[in-house]
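User: Predict the complex with FE2/S2 (inorganic) cluster.
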Amino acid sequence: MSKAQGLDRGLTDYGDPDFSRYLRRTFAQSMGYSRELLSKPTVGIAQSASGFNNCHRHFPELIEAVKRGVLAAGGLPIDFPTISLGEAFLQPTSMMFRNLMAMDVEEMVRAQPMDAVVLVGGCDKTLPALLMGATSVDRPAVALIGGSMLAMPFEGERLGACTDCRRFWAEFRGGRIGREQIGEIEAHLAVTAGTCAVMGTASTMAAVTEALGMTLPGTATIPAVHADRLRAAEASGRLAVTLAETGGPRPSQVITEKSVENALRVILAIGGSTNALVHLAAIAGRRGIRIPLERLNRISDETPVLVDLKPTGRHYLPDLFAAGGLGAVLREMTDLLHLDCLTVTGETLAERLTPPLAYVDREVVRSRSAPIQADGGLVALFGTLAPDGAVLKRSAANPDLFEREARAVVFTSLEDLSRRIDDPDLDVTPDDFLVLQNAGPRGAGMPEAGYLPIPAKLARAGVKDMVRISDARMSGTAYGTVVLHVSPEAAAGGPLGLVRSGDHIRLSVKERKLDLLVDAAEIARRRAETKLKPPPARGYGRLHHEHVTQAPEGCDFDFLQASSAP
Ligand code: FES
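Assistant: Here is the predicted structure with FE2/S2 (inorganic) cluster placed in the model:
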């Protein structure tokens, strides 16, 4: 092993390298490692287990399996904690802390002596943060995905977080089920370790990670509690030793313009989460690669939806695994992919996809000749209301609402929304567009508040969907005609912040348009009297407010993006 590898890598600065090495070995030996083991290549295991992260509760067992693989291949495994982001446990929103976790990962991988790293994550923001950080360090890395929950039957019906969570909550708000029943259901929606069991953000990012080539093939969809998940962990540990010994491929060789485009196509083909667009833009941005939303529309027009999973379709994530996994989807779209992309194992994507799959369940993974939808699940909209774009998950929306002009009912903030949405005197009809302002990245950390609840009085009257427009995000597990990520956001001076109740807005999915039908002089008058919120006085909130970019750039911090692809 060369001098700059293993525990000799990146010595602590004492002004005397020999002393630094001696001191490090002294303390390393205090942990009971043998001298022999301390001379091996070191594999860091970035792990994000936390008591506040239900999705990662099986990580201790997973990490043990990674260590087993590293040891079996002749390496020294050393795990280290990262920030953990449990989706439902963070205020105001996990999204606000994704960049903090990415900084943690980047700095700790760089600062600690590891030759390669296994990135272990799963819950929504964790995989993006791990990939963002690792891409910036560019040390050899392999991602190990935590895997999804199982969808278990309850009273004759299979339930899985969290599309079903939302469906039942809408029923409760509409008065069709009672408080006792919703309390009972709450205990049966998420019953195993792992990430949400539908094609939400976590599952979409798992697919993105495999499509980019950053995981072992065939591992994106293995359920969290399946024995194959542990075998994938062991194999990832083994691979990491090879990466440590050979020095690559490094993330910069795997995450390229072409592999990013592959991942974008996969998001569309699986009916993936809108959030994945933001995360992929952030990961790509760490390599100086941009994803213009106009390109999304072009690719969306050419890419059919092939996977029949909730919230777009009928099935759950474990069904996709049993149906052939992401490999079945990729094999169905080889003519649309850049097959010469290098993956973390050193194979090209073409080599990965050459062995045929023994079995594919066409109920879950459709063939190209019988897709779920002929075009991609996501579409970008532009216009006077969204000069830099907005996003709609058309595969989970109601096409009857796609071509409309309607009156805006505006909520100026999340607080205003929660105060007035169920007010019996709210002036709203099912044909209106609900508009939420100041819920974008700078305004509120970009929470998943874009799925505005249907006003209670309309929900009780049976209204299930309305056009909703905001600068917020939406959970990948949600559905409805929800226009998200309006950019620039209201808090950055975007026209969204200038909409008033009673204004008219025109939506045309066919024309990819979102226009505010108010004349320019009136817009200028409103702009002149609008005051933007000042940044928080101190701390991470201030850093976030001052440096977060808009959704099309991935909401990364401006100073962490690479200026251009090297
Ligand atoms: Fe972790 Fe849904 S809450 S993936």
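The CA atoms of residues 26 and 220 lie 40 Å apart.
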